[in-house]
Amino acid sequence: MSSKILVLFVLLVSLVFSSCRNTEGKSKKALDKKSAKKDAEPNVIAKKKFDNGIVIYWYKHGAGDLLQEGDMVNIEYEVKLKDGKIVDGNKLANKKMLPFLIGYNLQTPGWDSAFKELKVGDNVKVLIPSKLARGDKGIEGLIPPNSDNWLYLKILSKKIPTKQVDGTRVWLLEENKDNKLKFSDKNAVIFHTIASTPSVKEFVNTFRVDKPFIYRMEDHGLVPGLRKALINAKKFDRLFVVVPAAEAYGKQGYLDIVKPDESIFYNVLVMDVVKPGSK
User: Fold this and answer.
1) What is the mean pLDDT of residues 52-66?
2) Residues 233, 168: one domain?
3) Is residue 23 part of a domain?
């Protein structure tokens, strides 16, 4: 009798351990599936290929009208290469989101083309062929020549201008409220800027040469719209400014850089506001 009890006990222990092993195996598979699901891309619900080689894959559709040149939007984004390497994105800049102005060559040509096919609320993946990305030059040490780019993008919202003056739109992106001295007819402003138009990328870039502009209100050479945008600007203010042609170079344009009736975008960082006689 005792031998039968012992046999039954051994069988019971074997069943328990077998059950535990099966449970552990199932749990591990469930965790693996859960992890894989977390890392997987969302389901593509729509796809559109364009004649210029751009392909847009929608994970989620937004609403409203298509975006257009001159719209400023807040975005989350990552740019990846074919091998999955991340080469750009708001997280790399330690920002939850970044502003993007459509149609003024802030990024590669493929960006402006793609954004005009999108709406606020869209969540997409965009294939940008190399000819509309960094082309045969690439970026040394970061993007090899002739590399297609994959832009992962969420368009969160439109960004309304902080102020508008005679058609010039101004977005105050960063402000140091501790600084009280403002640009006016009583002082001078020192600022860095990058200037672009819809047809020419960065025809001015003072950051690159480390030579900021210095202007007083009465000085010539500063387009009227930018002068008006800078009124009341303070040290370390960062501004995006779009100046319409009528407040820039008008119907004449400027050399072969700014076309007739073309607006101008300025990315401005105010380095200082100084009183006359200051060093």
Assistant:
1) 96
2) yes
3) no
